Design the sequence.
């Protein structure tokens, strides 16, 4: 029942994603969340960590597209240094913006990974799309709004069930 919320991969930070593993799974493009995935919520510009990682991803041959629920202003400013495809007010977990990202990157859903810090927006939406989903730990969860904090409580329930299932699968 909770399977639709399970990510395919969990990492601490985007920098920990093994790009070789993605390549071996025929992943050619990455759909990226901004807030608490690439930078903390309060950081307006792409910082060195984000810029360097995106450069590495691009030079490894992957296409990229930001898909964020944040405002146009937030997304445009963040993307100033990166200059990659970027979609704002995405209404994740709805899949319309994800589908637009696929069109921009000229890729199919099974050639794409959705990367984000929230199970009920990034991962659920990415799973609905049929993409490979990667959950990162929120960079800074202390500054999150009350609504997100509430969602984190339910995320813990999903993760507990996820790890229980993984254990069971590994024992088989
Ligand atoms: Mg986020």
Sequence:
């Amino acid at each position: 029942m909770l399977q639709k919320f399970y990510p395919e991969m969990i990492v601490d930070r985007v920098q920990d994603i093994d790009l070789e593993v993605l390549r071996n799974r025929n992943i050619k493009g990455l759909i990226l969340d901004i807030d608490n995935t690439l930078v903390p919520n309060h950081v307006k510009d792409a910082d060195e960590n984000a810029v360097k990682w995106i450069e590495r991803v691009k030079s490894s041959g992957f296409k990229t597209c930001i898909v964020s629920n944040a405002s146009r202003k937030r997304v445009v400013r963040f993307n100033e240094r990166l200059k990659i495809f970027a979609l704002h007010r995405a209404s994740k977990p709805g899949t319309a913006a994800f589908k637009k990202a696929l069109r921009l990157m000229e890729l199919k859903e099974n050639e794409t990974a959705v990367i984000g810090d929230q199970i009920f927006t990034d991962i659920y939406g990415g799973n609905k799309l049929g993409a490979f989903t990667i959950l990162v730990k929120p960079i800074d969860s202390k500054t999150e709004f009350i609504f997100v904090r509430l969602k984190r409580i339910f995320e813990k329930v999903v993760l507990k069930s996820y790890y229980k299932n993984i254990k069971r699968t590994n024992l088989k």
In short: The mean pLDDT is 94. The pocket of magnesium ion is lined by residues 33, 35-37, 116-118 (CB under 6 Å). The first strand starts at residue 9 and ends at 11.
